[in-house]
C-alpha cells in the first residue's frame, strides 16, 4: 500500500468509523448468536494473493464482524466498567500506528519518551496527585497496557524492596505475603502468582459489611499473624473503587499501617481514579501520600481507548533497580549518561507503543473542563438511575454509588434477579452485568458512554421496571 493508496483507503476507514459511531445506537448492544457464528463465516485459509480493496474488507466488517460485537460505545452499554474511546483518542492512536516508533529506550525515539513523561506529569497535575509522584521529584509516571500490568510491576518492585534487593539474584527465598480486600481485583491474585508467591501468597482481608471497604484492623491482624509465623509482608493493594461495588478502601488507616511495618502500598484506582479530575471527587485521595505506587485506567472512564493505564511510583530508582536488564545491544551513550528515562525498565515487555499520543490528543481536545463535564455527567446519570431504584419499593440499592456505578437488586431471590438481568439484556437495548454483594446476586449499571443521556437512563429503568412486573406477577 503506497501513500496514495493509504490516503484513499484511510479516508474510507475513517468514514466507516464515523458512520459506526453515528448509528451504533440502532444496533442491539450485544449479539444473540451462538458461539462459533463469526468464526464459521470466515474462510478457513488466508488469501493466496492480496490486493483486496478496502471496500471488500469493510463490507465483511459490516456483515460478519459487527453483528458479532458487543458494542461498548453504545449509549445503552452499562456492563462491567465503561471502556470508552473518543475521536481524539482514535486519531492519536492512528498517528501512533502510522509513526510505528518503538519507545523502549529514550535513544530509540526521544520524543516518544519525553511526551510520555510530560503527559504523566500533566495527568498528575490534572488529578492533583501528591508531588512525590511527579517526575520533577524522585517519582514519575509511565503508561502500562493495563491496571493488571501496573499491579504486577508494583508487586515485583515490592519484592525487590522486601528482600533487601536479594529477589533479583536469588528469586523467592522467603514466604513473602501480599494483602488486599476480598474485593481486590482478580489481577492482584494473578500478579502474586506470576511473581512466584503461589495462590496462598495472597491474604484476602475482610470488608466492612456496610461499606464493602477493607477493614484496617483485619489487615493489621493478618500482617501480625504472618510476621509471627516468620513470613515477610511485602505489599498491600488498596482499591479506590472496587470492581464489584466501587467501595473505597480507607487509605489513611491502611497507609499508616503500611508505613509502620515498612510494607509497599499500591493503590489500584483502575476505574474510579478518573473521577479525581473533578475537585469535588478528590476526597478519594485522602491518604494517597502514603502510597508507593498508584494507577488508574484512562481507558476506562477518561475517553481514551484501550490500552492506557497510568501508573506512578514515588521512587523510580527502586522500580528501575528491580526490573532493569541491560544487554549489550541496548547500550547507548544517552542511557549511560543517566540523563534520560528508558521506559523499558518500568514495565515487563521491552518494546512499547507511542501511547502518550492518544492522551495528548484527548487532553488537548477536551481540556480539564471537558473531562470534568464527562465525569460529572456519568455521576449525575448514575444518581438519576439510583433515585428510580430508591423510590420503587420492589427494588433496593445494594451499595453506595459515589461514582457512575449503581448496584441494585429486586427484593427477591437470586434466581429472580438473574432472570431480570437476562430479560432486560435480551431486549438488545441495554447491556448490564452482575456481581455478588454479601453473597447475594446483584445487578450493576455502570454509566460511561459520552452518548448516554437521561433518555437512555430512563429507558433502562422502564425496561427493568416492566421486566420486574412480569417476573413478580408470575
Ligand atoms: N483493578 C480494578 C479495580 C478493576 O476494576 C479492573 C477492571 O475492571 C482492573 C484492575 C483490571 O483492569 P485492566 O483491564 O486495565 O487490567
TrEMBL record:
Alphabetical UniProt keywords: Decarboxylase, Lyase, Pyridoxal phosphate
Cofactor(s) needed for function: pyridoxal 5'-phosphate
Key word Protein transport present: no
Record region (Disordered): 32-51
Pfam families, per the entry: Pyridoxal_deC (PF00282)
PANTHER family the UniProt entry points to: GROUP II PYRIDOXAL-5-PHOSPHATE DECARBOXYLASE, MIP05841P
Family note: Belongs to the group II decarboxylase family.
Protein name (database record): Aromatic-L-amino-acid decarboxylase
Species of origin: Micromonospora saelicesensis
Amino acid at each position: 500500500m503506497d501513500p496514495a493508496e493509504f490516503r484513499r483507503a484511510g479516508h474510507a476507514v475513517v468514514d466507516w468509523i464515523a458512520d459506526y459511531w453515528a448509528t451504533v445506537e440502532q444496533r442491539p448492544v450485544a449479539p444473540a448468536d451462538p458461539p462459533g457464528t463469526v468464526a464459521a463465516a470466515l474462510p478457513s485459509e488466508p488469501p493466496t494473493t492480496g490486493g483486496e480493496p478496502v471496500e471488500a474488507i469493510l463490507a465483511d466488517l459490516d456483515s460478519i464482524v459487527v453483528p458479532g460485537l458487543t458494542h461498548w460505545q453504545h449509549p445503552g452499554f452499562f456492563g462491567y466498567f465503561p471502556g470508552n474511546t473518543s475521536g481524539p483518542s482514535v486519531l492519536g492512536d492512528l498517528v501512533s500506528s502510522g509513526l510505528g516508533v518503538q519507545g523502549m529506550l529514550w535513544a530509540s525515539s526521544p520524543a516518544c519518551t519525553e511526551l510520555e513523561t510530560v503527559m504523566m506529569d500533566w495527568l498528575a497535575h490534572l488529578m492533583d496527585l501528591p508531588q512525590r509522584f511527579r517526575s520533577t521529584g524522585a517519582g514519575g509516571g509511565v503508561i502500562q497496557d493495563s491496571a493488571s500490568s501496573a499491579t504486577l510491576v508494583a508487586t515485583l518492585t515490592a519484592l525487590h524492596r522486601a528482600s533487601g534487593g536479594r529477589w533479583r539474584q536469588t528469586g523467592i527465598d522467603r514466604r513473602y505475603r501480599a494483602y488486599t480486600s476480598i474485593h481486590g481485583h482478580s489481577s492482584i491474585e494473578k500478579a502474586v502468582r506470576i511473581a512466584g508467591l503461589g495462590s496462598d501468597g495472597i491474604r484476602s482481608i475482610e470488608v466492612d459489611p456496610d461499606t464493602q471497604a477493607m477493614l484496617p484492623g483485619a489487615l493489621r491482624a493478618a500482617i501480625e499473624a504472618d510476621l509471627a509465623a516468620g513470613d515477610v509482608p511485602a505489599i498491600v493493594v488498596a482499591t479506590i473503587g472496587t470492581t464489584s461495588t466501587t467501595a473505597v478502601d480507607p487509605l489513611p488507616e491502611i497507609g499508616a499501617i503500611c508505613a509502620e511495618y515498612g510494607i509497599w502500598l499500591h493503590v489500584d484506582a483502575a476505574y474510579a481514579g478518573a473521577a479525581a479530575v473533578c475537585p469535588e471527587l478528590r476526597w478519594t485521595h485522602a491518604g494517597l501520600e502514603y502510597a508507593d505506587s498508584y494507577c488508574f485506567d484512562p481507558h476506562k472512564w477518561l475517553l481514551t481507548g484501550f490500552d492506557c493505564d497510568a501508573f506512578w511510583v514515588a521512587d523510580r530508582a527502586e522500580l528501575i533497580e528491580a526490573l532493569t536488564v541491560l544487554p549489550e545491544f541496548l547500550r547507548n551513550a544517552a542511557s549511560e549518561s543517566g540523563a534520560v528515562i528508558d521506559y523499558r525498565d518500568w514495565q515487563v515487555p521491552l518494546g512499547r507503543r507511542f501511547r502518550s499520543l492518544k492522551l495528548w490528543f484527548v487532553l488537548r481536545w477536551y481540556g480539564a473542563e471537558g473531562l470534568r463535564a464527562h465525569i460529572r455527567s456519568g455521576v449525575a446519570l448514575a444518581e438519576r438511575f439510583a433515585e428510580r431504584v430508591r423510590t420503587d419499593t420492589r427494588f433496593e440499592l445494594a451499595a453506595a454509588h459515589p461514582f457512575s456505578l449503581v448496584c441494585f437488586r429486586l427484593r427477591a431471590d437470586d434466581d429472580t434477579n438473574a432472570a431480570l438481568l437476562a430479560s432486560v439484556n435480551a431486549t438488545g437495548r441495554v447491556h448490564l452485568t452482575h456481581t455478588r454483594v454479601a453473597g447475594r446476586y446483584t445487578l450493576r449499571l455502570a454509566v460511561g458512554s459520552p452518548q448516554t443521556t437521561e433518555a437512555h437512563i430512563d429507558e433502562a429503568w422502564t425496561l427493568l421496571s416492566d421486566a420486574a412486573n412480569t417476573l413478580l406477577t408470575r
